[in-house]
Amino acid sequence: MVKNEIVLIAAVAVIATACAPKVEYRLVPMDGHRAAAQPVTLENQSTALGSFEDDIYLTPSGVRYDEDSPVAEVAEVLMEAQRRLAPLKTVIGHSAGEYQNLRTDPDLPLGNLFADALRAYGTELFKVPMDFAVTNFGGIRVPMPKGAITMEDISSMFPFKNYVCYVKMKGSALTELFEQLSATKAFQATSGATIRVKDHKLVSALVGGDPIDPERIYNVTTIDFLLDGGDKLNIGALAEDVTLSTVLLKEVMLWYVKGMEARGEVIEAKADGRVIMED
Fold this sequence. Notes:
single chain, alpha+beta, 5'-nucleotidase,  domain 2, five-stranded mixed sheet, four-stranded mixed sheet
C-alpha cells in the first residue's frame, strides 16, 4: 500500500510537471465532503488530466504522448479512479442551510432532523408505528452542507457500521432511559418525546404528547451501538425485546434525502424545544 501511494504521488508530480502551469491547487474549508485541495471531477477531467485520442495521450497544455508512455499510463490510472469515484459525487438532494453537529446542544437541528428520519424509517422497516427514536450525536461526524448533497456527504456524516434496531420497552424502562440521558451533557438526538431536564435530572417527559404509562409497551427505534454500553447507554438491558436489522444508519439518511429530492423538497432542520436542559 505504501509503495503504491509513493508511486501515485510521484505520478501526480510527473503529470503536474508535464502540464504546468495548468495544474493548480487551492485550499478550501474542510466541510466533510472535500479534501484540502480542489479535487478533479468528471466535469473538469479533460481540462485537468487531458484526454486520449486514438493512440495518443494529449495533456491539458497540448503536449502529445504515445499511449504506452509512462505519463499516459499514469493519466489513464487517474482517469479510471475518477470514473470509479463518480457515484460518490452524485447529487441526491438539497439543503436550505449548513447544519452543524454541535454535540453539546440537546435541541440540535441536525440531530432533530435525523432522529425524526430514524423514527419514520423504523416505522416502515419494522411495520409498526414507532413511538420514540434515539441515536447518538457522536454518530454524526460532520455537518450537512448547504446546497447540493452528494452520496459522499452522507457517507462522511455516517461512516460507522451502526445498524438500525427495534426495541420494545415498558414505560417504566423508557422513563429510566430518559433519566440516564438527562444525566449526560447533550441528552442525544431524539424524536417523539418532549423532555424537560433541570440540573441533569429528569423533570418531565411526554411521548406522543401524553404522559408515559409505566405499564405500556412502547416501540423504540435506535441503533445497536447504544444497546450495550455505547455512549454509556445500555438500552438492551431495559428492553422487553430487541429486533436487529442489517440496515446501516447512513441508509436511513440516504432514504430520507432521496425521498425529499423525489418530492422536490429542500431539506430544512430546526430546533423545536423537544429537549430543554436547564443548569
